[in-house]
Amino acid sequence: MRNAFSAALLAAAQADERILLITGDHGYALFDEFRHHFPNQYINAGIAEQNMVGIAAGLAKGGFRPVVYALSAFSPVRVLEQIKLDVCCDELPVLFIGDGAGVVYSSLGVSHQSTEDIAALRALAHMRILSPADAHEMKAAMELAFRTPAPVYLRMGKSDLGPVHAAPPALEWGRLLPVSPGDGPLVFIGTGSLVNLAVKLANDWPGAAVWSAPSLKPLDADSLVAACEPHRIVVTLEEHNVLGGLGGAVAEILSQEHPMPVCRIGVPDRFSHFCGSYAYLMREHGLDLDSARAQVHAFTKKHPA
Amino acid sequence: MAYHGSTVHIACSFSLVEILAVLYRSHLKLGAQPGLPDRDYLILSKGHGVMAQYACLREIGWLTDEHIATYYDDGTELKGLSDASVPGLEVNSGSLGHGLAVGAGLAYGALRRGSSQKVYAIVGDGECNEGSIWETLLFASQFKLHNLLVIVDANGFQAMGKTAEIMDLGDLEKKFAAFGFETRTVDGHDEAALDQAITELVRSTVPGPRAIIAKTLKGKGVSFMEDSNLWHYTRLSEKTYQDALAELAAVAEPELHP
Predict the structure, then answer these.
(1) Chain A contact for B107 (CB, 8 A cutoff)
(2) How big is the CA angle at A64 (ends A61 and A69), to the nearest 5 degrees?
(3) What domains are defined for chain A?
């Protein structure tokens, strides 16, 4: 997925010299190729994220297409007000890349983890949010972002979980992407790293459908209702706080448009008290296959047919 | 405006009147209408002084008396703090420490395009409490933004009292110089001195950013507002309004009708 990101960024910078990559002193080897090919379109703004976002806003006002790269723990949350006032308020075409989203930096602790970024940005007017699940979605998401002259946040989470699609999907703002069809009682909707878990989880429920939600904002009511209507229970999965992310967005829409039970699986409303491997921390937060399966079983018992 | 608007940021608008007047009259190349792509940029990072900028926009004809009359009314577009949706205003400020970085981005973009556009950014001394200001000073120096002139409206006050007593900034000229700025300190109410300092700094061939520390009086021009923080954010009564008008007129008239 990171290769797909890098390739898409290189292609975009090649095609449009207004595209400037601005990093807050992060990225290491990820940008070796970019710096080699486009040294003049690469800006290291130092460890000063507030200024970095303001600079990006000024460059965008001056006709450039800045891509602001940072760990998702630092941008958006540290600079939420800069994103609000300097970028979103004037609807400027700035693409924010939040790397390491969720608990990717599992052994480093809370400072480097972000489980609140989607919730924080969903309430910013004019902001769009993408959360690709695999390399195919990443390529499509980058292309969609560069086609859209508006504020966009692209959430880059755990990147080595393997593909969920066989080929690059046709991605549109607001639309869910089908992963596996089914007409059973359950429909699983995942985003980012947890689409992969949704696929595994669905094996336990014959006929369950699986969808990916790479466009978290906007999220079209039509697309969501069409995916959920044939089923009785919706299960959402995200590597993010259970409050305010995909599950929140799905519940908001369905409660008005097509009321039905929504089982929200995500990081409980707490920080990581322990650290360890990624697999360990996902288990610790109840986001491994066994824990998720138990949560869905408990939910289906509460909501019998 | 201030009288009509009841509770307003009045004293922080009076401290930068001469700075704005000199910039609009003699330095800003704006063209005939707002938003031209090759314009100079005036960034009011201390958005609290926006009333003074509305007055300038009225002088150059981009706002009308009818616009000004709506200030603080229901449905007005003229907010109490700077908002980029008003033609002629460049940034959304009022939350302090935002505009300067956006101005530096505009300056950097102009240099990248090989444009001769200039960016004049006005920050308050109180605003210099914000860490983001100092982040941007580092960036401006690192990227040699010689087309950026920062003007500090150093009126010595912030919302709750004297800057020296709340968060003492020490010697601002030395601080800006230490951050790589070619810096002058002038009387911010002396238009000739301001004009000369701006002219010299803009013409300077030093390859880095420039700054002026403009020593000003909060509430300048109205004796009972000067140096009194009561007037940072307050309302004018009929009496104080008339008294203020009388004092301002007494100074203005001899200049208008010599």
Answers:
(1) yes
(2) 105
(3) 2-156 (3.40.50.970), 177-302 (3.40.50.920)
